Amino acid sequence: xxxxxxxxxxxxxxxxxxxxxxxxxxxxxxxxxxxxxxxxxxxxxxxxxxxxxxxxxxxxxxxxxxxxxxxxxxxxxxxxxxxxxxxxxxxxxxxxxxxxxxxxxxxxxxxxxxxxxxxxxxxxxxxxxxxxxxxxxxxxxxxxxxxxxxxxxxxxxxxxxxxxxxxxxxxxxxxxxxxxxxxxxxxxxxxxxxxxxxxxxxxxxxxxxxxxxxxxxxxxxxxxxxxxxxxxxxxx
Length: 236
Prior knowledge:
Blueprint: E1 26-27, H1 41-48, H2 57-62, H3 65-71, E2 75-81, E3 87-95, E4 102-111, H4 121-125, H5 129-144, E5 148-150, E6 153-155, E7 161-163, H6 180-193, H7 199-207, H8 211-223
Antiparallel strand pairs: 1-2, 2-3, 3-4, 5-6, 6-7
Helix pairs in contact: 6-7, 6-8, 7-8
């Protein structure tokens, strides 16, 4: 991910979160959390005790990559809701060991507009954290993936061209179709863009195969770096 020179008060200076990542109704104030001109993420972690876990030498040797991802170099970003003026700080964490690399939300601070207003479970459920996370990773994945479009058609690595309207047609036999898993990724991506809640299930219907088969295709596409990593406990 490219880094630019930090500009005073600009929360989007490092590309970790940009305005287009936010759902309708949410916006990112220009300055960092607390209306500061500098990124105070480390100080926020310190105040919250988020960084008070110190590993022993033996623990560091056995600590998994995912643990490291969850505890190092998080960045807090401040967003607001237009209508309610709800203020939310989200802690964004680069998952450096994921393939491909992704970003996850590893902390949330919820602040009602008026201090003292109650926070209900319904309000917390309505926080668009999953959508923000998905939008960030879709943007980063698109930035890293090379995709050539010539004359309105997508050019696959083999040189074969397919039109966008053909992406939802049956994909054929993976042993006989060149660029099969590129097509799997494109079909899955198209369904996701359409808001499909379970693209793997829809792919199974489109291709006349069992759900486990389409899920296997998607898994292999992910392993090849053609799709962003899936999230635990989520369909598709």
